[in-house]
Amino acid sequence: MKKKDKQSLIDELHGKLETVKSAVLTDYKGMTVAEITELRNELRKSQVEYRVIKNTLAIRAAKGTSAEKLEEYLKGTTGWAMGFGDAVAPAKALTEIAKKQKKLVIRVGLVEGQLADENALKAIASLPSREALLSQMAGSFSAPASQMARLLSATVARFGFALTALRDKKEQG
Fold it and tell me: Which candidate, 69, 94, 70, 72, places its Cα nearest to that of 81?
């Protein structure tokens, strides 16, 4: 690879690492090209980009970004799974794929700027999606208001029943 091509690759990767929500480093040693292609296709469905980048180029590209924390883990065969939308997506997708693809090893990740080991990534992968969490939170916020509305309507209805009973009693008496 020519020096000019390396620099353009470093610049491109640096731009991606500045905007990435999460990145997970994997070891793909022993996987065939077909298996890696299948891995990429599966990750693409989750809107996750998977790239194999030479470690020295990745170290240079990570300078000045939160991914700089991953430098000590860039040894051997390293694949990068990068998520730009949902921060949980790379960990979730890789955890599912690693169950089927025994040669794929999840090393470490960076989620919202925080370093996460393999166990932390598995815990993150078990979380519901961002949309599910937001809907749960919205439901929690709306529950007290709807309960208050039911109580108030019940109180008004009881008051109405009491007035009707009082009117009926006066008419009879």
Answer: 94
Q: What is the tally of structural domains in the chain? A: 2
Q: Would you tell me how many other CB atoms lie within 10 Å of the CB of residue 62?
A: 22
Residues 51 and 83 in one domain: yes
Domain match, 115 and 59 both = yes
**Per residue in 22-74, pLDDT tens?**
999 999 999 999 999 999 999 999 899 999 989 999 999 999 998 889 999 99
- Contact predicate 72/78, CB 8 Å: no
State pLDDT tens for residues 75-120. Answer: 998 999 999 988 888 999 999 999 988 899 999 999 888 888 888 8
Residue/partner pairs of 111-114 with CB below 8 Å, 24 or more apart? 111/21, 111/22, 111/87, 112/21, 112/22, 112/87, 113/66
Domain carrying residue 47:
3-127
120 and 136, same domain (yes or no): no
Q: What is the structure's pLDDT at 59?
A: 92
- HEC readout, 46-93: CCEEEEECCHHHHHHHHCCCHHHHHHHHCCCCCEEEEECCCCCHHHHH
pTM equals 0.70
Report the distance separating Cα 11 and Cα 8, nearest Å: 5
Query: 124 near 91, Cβ under 8 Å?
Result: yes
